[in-house]
Amino acid sequence: MTTLSAISLTTPAMLTGLFLLSLPIIVHFLNRRAKRTVVFPSIELLLNSTASQSNISKLKRLLLLLLRVLAVTLIVFAFTRPFHTSNSTEQDTVNNGAGVVLLIDVSASSAQQTTGISALKSLSSAASKSLNSLLAGSDTANIIFASANPKTLFPGMSSNLTAIKNELSSIKPTAERANLVAALGLANQQLSDQFGTRHLIILTDLQQTNWNEIASNSASNSNSLTKAFTSLPRDTKITIMPLNDKAPSNLALSSPSSYPAAPLTNRLTSLSVIVNNFSPHIESNRVTLIVDGHTFGSTEVEIPAWSNREVAFHTTFEKSGEHTVSFHINDDALNVDNQAHLVVACAKRVPVLIIGDEPVNSPGNATYFLTRALAPRNNEHDSYQITLKKSTQVAPTDINQASVVFISEILTLPDSLASSLYAYMNSGGAVVMFSGSTNIPKQLETLNKLREDDTITPWQVSSRRDLTPRNDHLNISPDGNWRNNMLKVFDPTSQQSLSKINFSRVWSTSKVHQDTRILLKYNDGSPALGDRIIGNGRFLLATFSPSLADSDLSKYGSFVALIQNITSALQSSKQINTQTFCGSSVTILPTFELMPSEDSVFVTDPDDNTITDCEIALDGDTPAINIGNTQTPGIYSVKQGSHILTQVAINIDPRESDLRRVDRKKLQTSLTATGLTAQLADATSAQPLNNLRGTPLWGYLILLAMIALAIEMSLLSYWKR
Helix, strand, coil: what percent of the chain each, to 5? Predict the structure, then answer.
């Protein structure tokens, strides 16, 4: 960079173009007439007049030469992109250089197309233009790709502007949701060590589902997105460059599911998907269902404006095992969300694990009644396949294969079993625990130790209340959470029947967790049954036991209805809670047995490419397969050789499908209210960072050059008349 007093040249190398000044000079001399003196006596008297006119002609040619030289000089200096620094701050920028961070939204919604051009293409073009005022060797820049797991192009700010521009020309959208908070955190790290002027340019489609937090009237410093903005260095100049065109209409698929969640072979199964219409008009499309790679059927659906419709197909699975299910619709403005995937585990009977240390054939204990409530026939006609295990004999695979795990009367809860149960719940499994054993407080404490920052149990138990010496009892209160899926089978008459059942031994509770959902309580107001969400799964805890020594519950049909309905509801919630979106990590708990071969286990993506970013640990108390980053929607497979061991479905975050943009005025107002100095500029008409160092002068130079050429052409035209 060359500095001339208060004027600096961005690209001084362009001064080499001054050699072009020789062109008008050469043309000037070529146009001069060669001298040859021929004197005729008859016109000798006119020589004085001719000499006078020749002097005027020389002056005209000299004036034209000066105008042409001036025009060329102005054009050459315009290409050096000079700017004028009018204050000390701008001069410091010249001396110290500037640092520019380009934060580019590469989420799934950036693939939206209007007039055949993707939003990301427009954003990357604007980003490239924004770098035109940077000085090679003096200024630094970097790119932050705002996806689910934001990353930078370079570890730190770089002066390699050519590499940055090349990257912008090849950038592609992801299938993930942008984590703006994490992306702004990276921007803070990049700009904190910058000595010159700091610039943050955010190029985004301003999708309202991502920006509403800061654009809403309730935006405050407590919001995570607002906090991320305010944590930037205070002198950072923030420019937000959104798309200026109208958001296109979009149809999207979401929430693929099956009912039942774990269907039985040769039983009717409903496979459904939600079709969302994010547009102000009625839209129609064709939904196609593909099962195990074969087209099962299709149907036409019409969806009202800003609404959705559930589309269901009915089928039966003849074979047990995992089946892949995919739904598709025709292409539109955003194609990445025109698919939805699901893996359905089908079995002859639903696997349920009961962990209990009591003799199962001893009538009267909790395990005995639990087994008969779930499998009353005790044969292949029962819907549930019961596996009974003692607390010291449970293997991780036993837990992972179960749709629901029941813990009955156990003498102890080994650390290995507690770890397996916790991992099972985190991955979407459901655990139901009854409180009958005198060791319940210690067992719950063993579970809670696994979570450092919180507890696992819905509450703590303090002491056992034995009401039998007083010939007293408790009853279920009619004031239950009867609308919950686990209790919806109980109509008002059934509720009254349940409230008449006596409970003589129960556990008193304390420190009920704020996230606990109390489903049933006793007539004294204390909790009887409650649950908590743990990871993607649930932990359901009862303060009673179905043992005859503790209550009369197991004597009535209400107990069978309660257990069957709880099991069915927990199966369905497991499928909903375990839906995984692109960009997130996935933990697969093994439910399979390895093949008797020496082939290693590996994971493939939907395109059958082997994934290297995964950890496979099939030994120990908590065997698991962890996939670090799922970048593509579809079916991921765990394989051993050519054999598929298990599969998992990955889908698009449904929030990415709503392409509506946040109100720009509201966003500007909210940013100002938080004390941020940010400006909004259209990405489609983005210019170089004009105020990076001062007032740009190249526009004025081009204007003066055009004026000089206009004067030159006007004089030529006038003199030739």
Answer: 30, 30, 40
Going by C-alpha positions, the residue among 110, 98, 334, 108 that lies closest to residue 203 is 110
Instruction: Establish whether the linkage from the previous residue to 260 is cis, with ω within 30° of 0.
Output: yes
Does one domain contain both 216 and 303?
no
Same domain (yes/no): 268, 317: yes
Alpha-carbon Rg of the chain, whole angstroms? 38
Could you tell me if 567 and 526 are in contact, meaning their C-beta atoms sit under 8 angstroms apart?
no
Which of residues 304, 325, 347 is at a domain's end? Answer: 347
**Coil/strand/helix, residue 595:** coil
Same domain, yes or no, for 375 and 486?
Answer: yes
- Indicate the residue type of 540: L
Contact 579, 651 (CB under 8 A): yes
Q: How far apart are CA 550 and CA 544, in angstroms?
A: 7
Question: What is the 8-class DSSP label of residue 655?
Answer: G
Strands of 7-9's sheet, edge to edge?
2-4, 7-9, 82-84, 695-696
421's CB contacts (< 8 A; 6+ apart) are 399, 405, 431, 447
The b-or-e profile of 635-668 (16+ CB within 10 A means b, else e) is: bbbbbbeeebbbbbbbbbbbbbbbbbbbebebbb
CA dist 71 → 28, 80, 234, 696 (Å)? 15, 15, 44, 19
Longest dimension (CA), the chain: 155
Q: How far apart are CA 259 and CA 261, in angstroms?
A: 5
Three-state secondary structure call for residue 206: coil
For residue 598, give its domain range. 582-646
Q: In what order do the strands lie in the sheet with 197-204?
A: 151-152, 140-146, 98-105, 197-204, 237-242, 678-680
Regarding beta strands 624-627 and 140-146, do their DSSP bridges make them parallel or antiparallel, or are they unpaired? unpaired
pLDDT at 34: 46
Q: Could you tell me if 499 and 387 lie in one domain?
A: yes
Strands 294-303 and 283-291: antiparallel
The answer to whether the CB of 350 falls within 8 A of the CB of 384 is: yes
Task: Tell me the pTM.
Answer: 0.76
Sign, CA torsion 380/385/386/392: positive
Q: Per the structure block, which two tokens stand in for 345?
A: 């585990």
Please, are residues 148 and 179 in contact by the beta-carbon 8 Å criterion? yes
Tell me the CA distances in angstroms from 73 to 20, 30, 62, one per residue in order.
Answer: 8, 21, 16
Q: Are residues 448 and 559 in the same domain?
A: yes
- In-domain check, residue 656: no
Say whether both 179 and 220 belong to one domain: yes
Chain segment 494-531, per-residue pLDDT in tens: 999 999 999 999 999 999 999 999 999 999 999 999 99
- CATH number for the domain that contains residue 284: 2.60.40.10
Q: Which of 191-200, 293-302, 455-464, 636-645 has the lowest mean pLDDT?
A: 191-200
Number of structural domains, the chain? Answer: 5
User: Are residues 98 and 202 located together in one domain of the fold?
Assistant: yes
Q: What is the CATH number of the domain that holds 473?
A: 3.40.50.880
Cα separation, 401 vs 574, in Å, equals: 13
Residue 4 structure tokens: 């001339």
Query: Six-digit token pair at 425?
Result: 């719940």
User: Which of the four pLDDT bands, split at 50, 70 and 90, describes residue 678?
Assistant: confident
Residue 653: inside a domain: no
Q: Is residue 162 situated within a structural domain?
A: yes
CATH number of the domain within which 179 lies = 3.40.50.410
Give per-residue pLDDT as tens, 381-417. Answer: 888 999 999 999 999 999 999 999 999 999 999 999 9
- Verify that 68 and 129 share a domain, yes or no: no
